[in-house]
Amino acid sequence: MTSLQKQSGYFKGFKFNRLYSLSGIINLSLVTLIIAVMLLAYTTYSKLSSFEQSLNSMMNKSLPSVILSGKSYSQMNLLLSGTEQLSMANSEAMRRIATNTITRQLEGLQKLSQEHQQTYHISSQLSSVERELDELNELVEQRIAVNNRIERLTAKLYDLQRQINTDLTFSSPTGASTAWSLQFSRIMLLSAELTSLDQLSEIRQRQNNLENLFISLSELADTLPADQLQSAQLAIEALSETVLHPNSGLIALRQQQLKILGRVQGRSNFVRNLIADYARLNEFESHQLNQAVLSRAAKTSRLVEHQVKQASVLFIILLFAYIGFAVFIQRVVVNRLKNLNQQVQQRSTGQSHIITVTGNDEITELAKSFERFATTIELQKNTLEEMSLRDALTGIANRRAFDDYYSQALNVASRQRWPLSVLLIDVDYFKQYNDNYGHSQGDICLKQVATLIKQQMPRKTDILARYGGEEFAVLLPDTDEQGAIKVAEHILDTFKTAQLPHDFSGVADHVTVSIGISVGQQQDGTIKLPSVEAADKALYKAKRTGRNRWVNDAAENEQK
Fold first, then answer.
1. How far is CA 107 from CA 69, 86, 127, 321, 460, in A?
2. How many CB atoms lie within 10 A of CB 77?
3. Which superfamily is assigned to 399-558 in CATH?
4. pTM above the 0.70 mark?
């Protein structure tokens, strides 16, 4: 049984009419579903009122504390990040940025502590963190100040090197001057390396070495000429002041820097531990709050479970109603619309000649409308196609139709080795006819010419077409040279017999025609195909040699 037969049997039970149309059934089903949904919503709302009260209690009392605890945890992470930034700050700008971050987070934690009403122990822990951070900030500030002083001394050291190279140049180097210069350069190199030493013991050892080298440098200066001695002593004094000064020298500052670095590192670790302790205290308190929330949530969950069971019954009823409605739509609407679409496609491609859908509803009416529309379109298409292939004046085929027939005939003649002939006919002195009798009478004359030519073409396979203006084309399938000439002579005789008046013709007192013939046939085992061009050349020759005659292009002869 086909789907169409199943649908037909299905609809027999319904007996659709205006009262029970498809739209009416769908509307009734939708109204029923809406009522069921409203009933379910009302029942759910009324049953879950106590659930709402429980949620409000939990949200007003427990959840804010949990949220504040989460915010505290987030701000403590930011506080740790600010502490790391502060401990690693190497410039005043970086220190201020880190300090601002820490200040904002501490203010936030203080505010949350007040809102949360934290215990005294937790608040005290936060105060300790704040104090330690202040001390860490002071140490970092000291470290930055020492770093800046060391940078200035290092720059001064390089400036001193350049000055010595400029001011103290030995014009006549001696062994003493060379030894002094080497010793001085060695001291400069060892002094510059002080910033790379990260152990106090290494710096003290380097200090002892430099002091001994300075003594040796002073002894070497005493061996220099008198004109060089003063410059050398000034250089030694300046270098010694820069490197060995007990308070402001590079060695002293580097030792101070390492000590401050150690204190910063220790203070930073201590602060991180304090923050971690503060976080653990908050975590413990948050855990207690979470337990309280979970307890309330469990109680609420049991209440919800009871209410959901009641609502589920109504939901299941609603679900089955929806499934039933969906099945109805699928069978009654979707499947029939698919069938209609398939038939419309088959109708449009010519695979089917009629659209049929069973039933007595809107889809059936739609199918009938499609069928009426398709029929109208088909009739219009056939009419337009016929009009496009017919000459409006004479009613015979036009040039477009002739070209199509001619192309098909050529293929058949070539494939089957059949003869094929083409006649091109022109009304003699037709311009004079129009000029003297008028265009209206000229149109009548062309209709008469078409009728006379058509009378000499008894076969259904022969084609007569108006080729253009007063020119007519004749296609004679399976017609050899003798047959084509015979048809041409009959056409000339017909016009001679008809005696259509033409007082202004140059060859007779009646309408005459000239005919050009092109014949396609076998010649020496090969196929010679006719052409309109060859027939046109033959027609031109016929008109040139006197008109009212035929000329065969293939045989190169004409009517005598």
1. 15, 17, 11, 60, 108
2. 13
3. Reverse transcriptase/Diguanylate cyclase domain (3.30.70.270)
4. no
